[in-house]
Amino acid sequence: MTTSVRPYPTLAGSVELEVVGAALDGRPQLLDMISRQERVVALHLNERSDWREARLELRARLPQRELSTGPWQKVECVAVLTEGVTNSRTLRPLRRASDGSWAGSITVERDLHRVRADLDLFVTATIGDVPGRIVGTDENPWIVDLTARTPLRQRTLEINEVDFGDADVPWLSRFKELPWLVETSGGDVPTVHLNLGFEGLKELLGSGGSVSEKALRGSIAAQIAAEAWTAMFHSAISELELDDDGTPQWPGGWRESVLRIMLPDVHPELPPADALFEAHSSRANGGGWHELQSRIQYAASRRAKVSRSLSTAIRSLDRSKEARA
Amino acid sequence: MNRHTVDRSDLLALLPETVALKYLTRSVLSGQEAPPRIALLRAASPMGEPSARWSAYALCELVDEAMSRFPEGSRAAADAWLAPRLHATLRMTRAEASDPELWIYVAMVVAPDYVVWRHLGGAGSSGEPAMVATGRFTGPHYTQAFARLWWAAELFRDGDDYRPAVTACRNQDVLNTVMRLDLIDHRPSARAVVRLLDQGTIRTGREVNALAKAINTAGTTLLYDVLAPDELPEQEGVREWIRDAETAPPAPWKALPDGPKDGRIPEASVDTMTGCFAGLFEKAPVRGRADSPSPGVPAQGVSLHKAYAESSEPRSAR
Question: What does the pLDDT average to over A115-130?
């Protein structure tokens, strides 16, 4: 447990949670719904969309030797399933199994969840006369995704292909000269609207084409992605809640993910919480806000791999010129 | 701002935030104009299966009654009346209630007049006209005008008993501060905060905020669920309550309605958390505690010196 200093002894050894099986309404499911690398369970199935509850089989490894020799009394190991948008919180204890691991199961109620739930593991113990102290946790929680078919951690942007001049989307018409527009308000994830009314864009971004067309496509895709990252960063940093003493709080959802991913590139010298404070205060007070823009651009470009795809594009253009020469 | 007549057959729908933001102009936010109903209806999408629980008419009736019951100067008191009745009228699962587009539709199309009535602040010092914060139409569950009430009823009720939610809603700082805390999703913790209000251990806004801060800080090293175990709410009770919406009469205006019978919170766990929070509060710094009882109560029109336990509303007959 390295995230915070605690006034009592915590576990030094690692605590690890695995999801080893899943059943929907009592029917065992294929194991390819579970990814141990990604630490994600995907619960969206085309053939069974009306399930009511999913039961996940859990197994945890705790530093058993450390636990038995340390100062901890009444050790408990619990799995906690939470989702911020539905304010849901389900807790289940795990029990010691004969092989030394801890085992148990937790139920995902469909009615209590919407998009993605976090599955955490906590080890608690009585220390002195205080029960329920958190002495260990798996620092890499699992994700239970109700909308995904494949277990992937990284969420993709929503891509909406639409003619900006279309009467059904009146609010886009004033942007109809733009090839694309990034929208960060509303929705569970940000959306990139691609303008089908922009001549040649669909063909360019479609599949096939020559080497240089492919390279150009990669470069444009990277540019769109960089703009999306920049827009997401600005949206996330502008909607922070402050606590009583003015410390900005992590916003949750995709906004938090974006900040946690980009802040290490924006303020590489600072730990995440300090980087958040710094970015927020330079925006709020104006000091350093301009300097921050270059750093945001740098972080967004890195995420979008702009330099790499641009280099690829330039090289392939060079090559096709040489071929013609 | 006059409301367009809502037809008895009108159902709720979903409205994207992007659309709402476009129409939340200064004149809408200051209450001089209603949001453009026709344009909003065109951008809205239906809720799925039609059902009596999505009746826009029932919601309108309720909101109209709230506005006529609570005169100017005591509008914040409408929260405690409206929250349980809104919850009992709009019967749905947490998954359904977590859709912001539903709440945006209610605020923009069904009852924008209520949002302005309840949340229009005083005029700015520079003579700027008073405006409702955008978040009251489109914000998160603890800010949006209707979502905050529904979720307060959901998070503070004790099974089918709405009385703890009524107490919670009488205190604006519980709605504004405590409801944002993740730990309130642990039912015995939510119930314990209300019990401290009932007992008069915490009264003023400052005391509520001090308690919130103390229990949130302690919650980073303590797992409250282990101290005070809770039963998983029975989802079948919620489903039955939702099914009953088809035939249930409208929520009573005088007596409290009944909530879903999904199981009471274990009493022993509530006692544990009440003791734990009282201990944390005793040590917590409270601004201006030395000169209490101070009049440092937010000017929201709510008296925080009520004897909460005595003023509970009568429960409806079973």
Answer: 92
